[in-house]
Amino acid sequence: MNNEKLNEVKEKLERDLQNIENEAVLNELKVKYLGKKGLITELNSEIKNIPNEQKKLFGMAVNELKDLFNKSYEEKLSFFKEEELNKRIQTETIDITLPSKKVKRGSLHPMTLITEEFEDLFVSMGYTVYEGVEIESDENCFQKLNVPKGHPARDAQDSFYLKDEYENFLLRTQTSTAQVHAMEENADKGPLRIVCPGKVYRKDEDATHSHQFMQIEGLVIDKDVSMADLKGTLELFCKKILGEKTKVRFRPSYFPFTEPSVEVDVSCFKCQGKGCNLCKQTGWIEVLGAGMVHPNVLEMCGYDPKKYQGFAFGTGLDRFAMFKYGIPDIRTIYGNDIRFIEQFNRKDDTYEAK
Predict the structure, then answer these.
(1) Which burial class, exposed, middle or buried, applies to 281 when counting CB atoms under 10 A from its CB (0-12, 13-18, 19+)?
(2) pTM of the model
């Protein structure tokens, strides 16, 4: 009885294999014979009802039938896959004479370019790039920089104080706050040389100012540091960024956290010092402020001002980007206009006076 059923399934399988037209029918056939209730699966379940002396032969016969199906299935499947591929090759031809599509290429933002250029320069001079925080305490932002409460210098920095935290926390108005953190974190109170780029915030907004802009702050602390070291550093910095023929001049100024203090001007790279609308006919452009670190700042941050001296300088990265790339309006830098940003994959040469 079981052999009759086995032969019946084999004959039916051979007929079905001859009538397969596509891959879908082939898969249906697999379910019919090898599924949970498939014909070959049912034959396997019959083995327990066969006398022991016949089980081996019957099992071998069922396995042969299963192998026959699997072999036929793989051959048919391979045939249908190849047939489908050949049809696709014939119908999906590519005309290689057509012009290719232009691949859009990204470019770095001008602020990223100028920041990396500044960092590379100062790292080559032995500085460490220091990451400062943007939410600051009033103490770090003003008081430890020798600007106590009520000091008139605060009026020049219209600040963003946090809600319910007036006179406690605010968005930093200058990267000089990084000096405080760096000096306090320097546990052995030894020499220090850092540069800190980052965003700062003030309530300004016009063609030349923004409520958010970028500064870069430099600080050097060591024994026997003088204004001569500061002057040499800034002359090298300006010439490397704006061109070797750039002239640099220092004007006495006032900052609460440095003494003595200077404003630094460079010769106008547009007119080479002859006078134009960019330099307001003066031949000079103000680019940064600097000075020797005030002894009060050193002392409040844990340094002995009788043993250590230092100098600090700070400038607007936005301003240098505007000078270098000829950007007339600072608001363009933060406008997120892809047409503006795309220009700077070609702006890789520094301006140099001729």
Answers:
(1) exposed
(2) 0.64
